[in-house]
Amino acid sequence: MKAHFTLLAQYNQWMNEQIYHAAAQLNESQLKQDRGAFFTSILGTLNHNVVGDIIWLKRFANHPEAKQVLQGVHAFPQPTALDELLFTERHSCQQARQRLDELIINLIDELSDDALNRPLTYSNMKGQQASKAFGLLLLHFFNHQTHHRGQLTTLLSQEGLDTGITDLLALIPSH
């Protein structure tokens, strides 16, 4: 399982770099323009992925094998809503994204296959407690970002911007 998560962490970082590279071609007004998207704008959707990652990484930091490697996530403010705009301009959002992607790669590097099978108990945004297999929570974590990056590639393509190849297949080595 760990090898799969290593690939997903690399893909996550690679795709985020492509998304932000495309987004850098837009001015702040274009990034903030209401596009009728679920999180309103390109910047709103970029923020949502950062917010979601902060929330989940802070939860993951309670896992015994993740505490040490995820200490850096505590420097980020605790989001209070999924649509919160923690960053009001692209550059600061991108800097946060890069720091989070490094934390994610370091997290996966540190985890054992055994840790992925252990439960993680956490509370959701409404304070409801849950306990689920850590590996399956990680799968949700990566899937969530992929989902919203799909929305971002659509929003960016509507502006005439190409994010390039987006398939995980591009990172899978040949045998």
What do you see in this structure?
The chain has 175 residues and is mainly alpha-helical. It contains six helices and two strands; from the N terminus they run αααααββα. The protein has helices spanning 2-23, 28-32, 42-60, 90-110, 113-117, 134-158; strands at residues 119-123, 129-133. Strands 1-2 form a two-stranded antiparallel sheet. α3 (42-60) runs parallel beside α4 (90-110). The chain is globular and about 45 Å long. The two termini are 19 Å apart.
In terms of topology, how is this protein built?
Layout: H1 2-23, H2 28-32, H3 42-60, H4 90-110, H5 113-117, E1 119-123, E2 129-133, H6 134-158
Antiparallel strand pairs: 1-2
DSSP helix fraction: 55-70%
How would you write the strand order of the largest sheet? 1-2
Order of helices and strands: HHHHHEEH
Low-pLDDT stretches are none
Q: What's the story with the biggest beta sheet?
A: 2 strands, antiparallel
Q: What is the overall shape? A: globular
Q: How many beta-strand elements?
A: 2
What percent of residues are in strands? 5-15%
Number of H/I helices: 6
Structural class: mainly alpha
Q: Please give the alpha-carbon distance between the first and last residues.
A: 19 Å
| Overall radius of gyration | 16 Å
Write down the overall mean pLDDT. 96
